[in-house]
Design a protein that fits this description.
alpha/beta, Dihydrodipicolinate Reductase, domain 2, 2 domains, nine-stranded mixed β-sheet, 10 helices, 31% helix
Length: 319
Amino acid sequence: MYRVGIVGGETHVGEVTKLAGEQLEIVAAAVRPEQTEEAAEAYNCPVVEDYRGLLVNPELDIVAVANENDRRAEVIVAAIAAGKDVICDKPLALTMAEQDAIEEAVAANPQRRVLNLLTLRGQPIWRALREVVNCGRIGSPAFTHVRMAVRLKRDERPPWFLDARRSGGLFLDLLIHGLDQVEWVTGRHITAMTATIGNLGEPEEEHLRDHAAVFCEMEDGSAALCEGQRMLPDTKGSDYRVTVAGTSGYADLYAAESKLVVTDMEAADQEVTELPEELSVVADWLGGGNAIPQVASLRANRLAIVATMSATRHERIEI
């Protein structure tokens, strides 16, 4: 059983804590002062305020990073230097300088591992879409469209999350999943991106970003569009959809309904009813699996940073 220390208590730390008692033992945590009492109860372990006090613990094998987005890179680099493996909620870093620092730390410590929680790779409907595309059922992918719509949930968010300078904005906090899916599902690399990002819902909020889109040029001449927004009405929790159009048909994924429909050379609108089992990407990683290779963990974050740069600079950027 691996011994893990948790830094922070934000959104997806549950992907780690749900394995406590099975593959993981939570032995320490570091959180903000106002989170101390809740963390002590939830994690049932000693709690400190400064993550540096956690890193010197010789018992730790892994550091799970789920603090504020703009503070993650420093923790990751420090954890690797301290000889710990890292599981991190997305994003890993917000700037290219931070990204480079993480990649340099990994290169200097090749025995250390970093996992980016790209959890969609473990969900049955997304795994089924990849299988449909990879088996050639719809031919060679020509165009992929990923749509990710969610609610802003302003009242449930900490102030830092509503500030793109600290959260990173839509590409880093949300569409990193979509960019990863474009490459993972199609098996093609993105070679150039042209992006846009903005705030239409609450323009008086200077640093809020509520919508974004990026056009991706792929290595084989195909294309992809990845777009998302945090303007979904409260009547719906989330709405993720994907269309992959190939040379011999197309596949449509509707995540909210856990539905995958394929039109190929045999028939139109065929629903895929036999889905792969759900996979915990953390459990897979702990067991030596390859659901999320380290290169993919790092690359997804780099792509999200490049998309953000493209939108900010209003220019096309080659990868």
